[in-house]
Amino acid sequence: MTISEIDLLRQQLHGCLNLNVGVANLKEIKPVIYIEVNPDRTVKSSKVVNKEKLNDPSFRTAAEAAMRAVNNPDCSPLLLPADKYEQWKEINFTFDFSWMFD
Q: From the CB of residue 9, how many other CB atoms can be counted at a distance below 10 Å?
């Protein structure tokens, strides 16, 4: 996938993100979400990859928000190039919240 295709997906998922204010160290928190995608670009399944960090309340809050964004019906189907299914049928998507502070 091209950088612009990845950026389009990133913008879409960030647009579906609803994160409660007050998460400590949000700039440093980077939950990784493993997403299985159906050929029609809908989410088949998703899970937190770096789940060993879920015992941190701030990380848990951010990871739960990331999961809600991935599974948000308003973000379906995902903005992915239809002709590149083999490249995006499985995605490890890192939510980097630092863009919220620019």
A: 19
Across-strand partners of 43?
37
Other CB atoms within 10 Å distance of the CB of residue 1: 14
Q: CA 17, CA 65: separation in Å to the nearest integer? A: 6
Give me the residue label for tokens 């994160």. Answer: 19
Quick: pLDDT tens for 31-58: 999 999 999 999 999 999 999 999 999 9
Pairing of strands 90-94, 43-48: unpaired
Q: Are 77 and 41 in contact (CB under 8 A)?
A: yes
Q: Is the pTM of this model over 0.85?
A: yes
Domains observed in the chain: 3-97 (3.30.1150.10)
